[in-house]
Write a structure and sequence with these properties.
The protein has about 375 residues and is α/β, with parallel strands linked by helices. Helices cover about 40% and strands about 20% of the residues. The N and C termini lie far apart (about 40 Å).
Length: about 375
């Protein structure tokens, strides 16, 4: 991975830490960078995986998760520290959303992002308002960590500030045990892994760690005093999906103490229709876009509701056995799925927020 530093970002503390260890090249600005001429968007996405840009971010670091009012949202908040990912999943929506190629790290996250976050956390604590904050929406929270150390800074920030908030670090990476040894135990820090069936990991999640490695990392996190979470998202239909997804859930529940799991989410494959063309150009071997989809209320392509329910219900028996100990929720589903699969008669996003806020509040009082 080649590192480019914007002139304006050169003086930031994070930039200085990185360029002390790795070769780099200074550029006037990201907008002046010369990409391959006449390259398609698909080609630029692939090329961008090789470049890390250290840039001064001029927007808001703290923001709402970009959900949709047409399906229930969980009220998640984002601390925006980077855009792009070293991993290369065939279904990744960032292929479409990030029309500026390359992996971009906000070099001023310490000078500008942390003070903004501190103001938000202090105000919420003053108002006794619980917050659930994550960094894994526009970038994997941990894949860049060996190079940039932003999550380490955030964990230490949480230790000092002791906010009425949990920090969720979502990843598909294997994290060695030595990483967790750096910190004091803190149940407010949630290390979360996106999980999938091994078949999907092997065929669609390029460059990511194996299922066994993700579970092993979660065990390390728990052993060193952190909370964990798991996200079955996207659940993808294939021939053995209804057999293999329950097997993954069983592996997790057999390996991790239930009381250390904050929550487990479920979400079926969905995507903007334009993503199919970019993804199939980049990954000719993928077949995940070949099934029949409908256009949902959010204008994204998704499986018919009967197929989504069938996939979710393959997990329902196991969920029923542990639902009094572990919180399960859906990402981007509506009233019918919540009631018919989890038997929760939820009518609004507020009820989903309350469900998860209760868990977060308990962790903050631990």
């Amino acid at each position: 991975m080649k590192i480019f530093v914007e002139q304006e970002a050169l003086s930031s503390s994070l930039t200085q830490e990185i360029i002390e260890k790795y070769p780099y090249e200074v550029i006037p600005a990201y907008e002046d960078f010369r990409w391959k001429e006449q390259a398609s968007q698909a080609e630029l996405v692939s090329l961008g995986k090789k470049f890390l840009f250290l840039m001064k971010f001029k927007g808001r670091f703290f923001r709402d998760c970009p959900g949709t009012k047409n399906y229930f949202c969980c009220g998640y908040k984002i601390f925006h520290f980077a855009e792009g990912c070293l991993f290369d999943c065939t279904y990744c929506i960032l292929q479409l959303y990030l029309n500026r190629p390359g992996i971009k790290l906000w070099a001023n996250v310490v000078e500008d992002g942390f003070p903004e976050l501190e103001r938000v956390l202090n105000e919420a604590k003053k108002e006794k308002k619980i917050l659930r904050i994550g960094t894994g929406e526009f970038a994997d929270s941990m894949v860049l960590e060996p190079f940039v150390g932003v999550s380490e800074k955030l964990i230490n920030f949480w230790e000092v500030l002791s906010p009425l908030a949990v920090l969720e670090l979502k990843t598909k990476a294997f994290i060695k045990e030595d990483y967790f040894k750096k910190f004091k135990p803190n149940p407010k820090i949630i290390f979360a892994w996106s999980l999938n069936a091994p078949f999907i990991i092997n065929t669609e999640e390029n460059g990511t760690s194996s299922l066994e490695q993700r579970i092993e990392s979660a065990k390390y996190a728990v052993n060193h005093g952190f909370t964990v979470a798991f996200h079955f998202d996207p659940i993808i239909f294939y021939e053995n999906a209804e057999v293999e997804y329950p097997q993954v859930l069983e592996k997790v529940l057999n390996a991790i103490p239930w009381e250390k799991i904050a929550w487990i989410s479920l979400g079926a494959l969905r995507y903007p229709k334009e993503l199919k063309y970019i993804a199939e150009e980049r990954f000719p071997q993928t077949s995940i876009y070949a099934y029949e989809f409908i256009e949902g209320l959010d204008l994204k392509k998704r499986y018919f509701i009967d197929l989504r329910k069938k996939l979710y219900q393959s997990l329902a028996k196991i969920i029923k056995e542990v639902e009094d100990k572990i919180t399960f929720y859906f990402c981007m589903e509506g009233e019918r799925v919540w009631e018919e699969v989890l038997e929760k008669p939820f009518k609004s996003s507020n009820q989903v927020c309350q469900l998860l806020d209760q868990v977060a509040y308990r962790l903050c009082l631990s």
